[in-house]
């Protein structure tokens, strides 16, 4: 584990990743509700908000758009990812090397691991190689730790999310991005299991401002270090409004009412 508190990914011990790899992971369907959300520049603009500690994108977006934003945005380059067209057991392709990510300007790297998939062994072996390489470049490593696969009945229950958090610690991730397990107590358990690995909550599909912020608040109160969020920001007409509220809840410890100015 490397000290990451001084890295661009972390501000005051907290993390707010704006994820925008959905064009690969989910496809254009995620953009239909708000057509302008398909334009990567719109999300790169949103990532200039001071609350955002990094934008997470795949190599193609990083190459094409990051050069215009490298002075105003910090980059988390996602090294693997798969399209929604893949219908098999959960698996994900390595799309970029650590060395290439570094050359493109990445400040940190991300990797999805589907624990419990029939392909877990291959993914864990790929993770080993890139985690060790990331250490050489002193790049923090964020694991999208998403247990799923044939044998897994519920990928967000307390036991599964605690295991996801622990997997990230055991395999050497600096930050574990996990789904919200449904309650503050369950999140506390996951945070305990993650030890020195920082746990951040995954945003999930778009919901109301209040519902979303309540889950973020519960995750923070449980010892979570922040959030990696996509749709709940850039599927909104006004990403700035929700980022202002997130800044208050995550970095200033504000209540949901205060953040919503109610
Ligand atoms: P959201 O906040 O929109 O859920 O984004 C977080 C994220 O992990 C993305 O990085 C990724 O594309 C997506 O969720 C994966 O979602 P799914 O659970 O459908 O695989």
From TrEMBL:
Record InterPro entries: Aldolase_TIM, DeoC/FbaB/LacD_aldolase, DeoC/FbaB_aldolase, FbaB-like
CDD domains per the UniProt record, alphabetical: DhnA
SMART domains: DeoC
EC number per UniProt: 4.1.2.13
Active site, UniProt feature: 146 (proton donor), 177 (schiff-base intermediate with dihydroxyacetone-p)
GO molecular function: fructose-bisphosphate aldolase activity
SUPFAM superfamilies the record matches: Aldolase
Enzyme class: lyase
Family under the similarity heading: Belongs to the DeoC/FbaB aldolase family.
Official protein name in the record: fructose-bisphosphate aldolase
Source organism of this protein record: Halomarina ordinaria
Phylogenetic lineage: Archaea, Methanobacteriati, Methanobacteriota, Stenosarchaea group, Halobacteria
């Amino acid at each position: 584990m490397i000290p990451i508190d001084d890295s661009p990914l972390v501000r005051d011990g907290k993390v707010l990743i704006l994820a925008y790899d959905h064009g690969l992971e989910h496809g254009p369907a995620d953009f239909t509700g708000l057509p302008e959300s398909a334009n990567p520049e719109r999300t790169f603009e949103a990532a200039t908000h001071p609350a955002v500690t990094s934008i997470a994108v795949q190599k193609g977006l990083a190459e094409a758009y990051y050069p215009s934003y490298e002075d105003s945005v910090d980059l988390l380059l996602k090294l693997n990812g798969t399209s929604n067209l893949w219908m098999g057991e959960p698996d994900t392709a390595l799309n970029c090397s650590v060395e290439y990510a570094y050359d493109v300007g990445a400040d940190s790297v991300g990797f999805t691991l589907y624990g419990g998939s029939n392909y877990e062994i291959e993914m864990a072996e790929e993770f080993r190689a890139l985690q060790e390489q990331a250490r050489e470049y002193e790049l923090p490593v964020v694991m999208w730790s998403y247990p799923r696969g044939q044998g897994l009945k519920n990928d967000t229950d307390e036991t599964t999310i605690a295991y996801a958090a622990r997997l990230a610690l055991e395999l050497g991730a600096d930050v574990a991005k996990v789904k919200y397990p449904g309650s503050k107590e369950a999140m506390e358990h996951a945070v305990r299991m993650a030890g020195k690995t920082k746990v951040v909550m995954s945003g999930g599909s778009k919901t109301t401002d209040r519902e979303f912020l309540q889950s973020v608040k519960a995750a923070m109160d449980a010892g979570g270090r922040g959030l990696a969020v996509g749709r709940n920001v850039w599927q909104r007409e006004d990403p700035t409004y929700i980022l202002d509220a997130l800044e208050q809840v995550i970095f200033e410890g504000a209540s949901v009412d205060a953040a919503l100015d109610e």
